Amino acid sequence: MKEDEVRAALQAELAELSDLQAVSAEARAPVELDQTTQGRLSRMDAMQAQAMALETQRRREVRRSRIEAALKRLDADEFGDCVVCGEEIGTKRLAVDLTTPTCVDCAS
Fold this sequence. Notes:
Layout: H1 3-23, H2 40-75, H3 91-96, H4 104-107
Helix pairs in contact: 1-2
């Protein structure tokens, strides 16, 4: 994959993460504790859904950080090189995840 294709793919994923964050904002909102508007079990379901939405958002932020780090490596002309040993990361490994910072040997 060429550098401009990698950059475009990473930026597209960043845009998708931003869109998903905006769409899921309501699901992460605090759960109302007023029993007159909903029963105890409904509130518990809402709290569980909120917890799952918050965890999903946390994972999106981790992914965003990995993408931003990969873009920085692209800018520094270090993309595709292991951040630990400096050796080239295999193309098959990068094809699975463009944000992979390490080679197979250093990842284990």
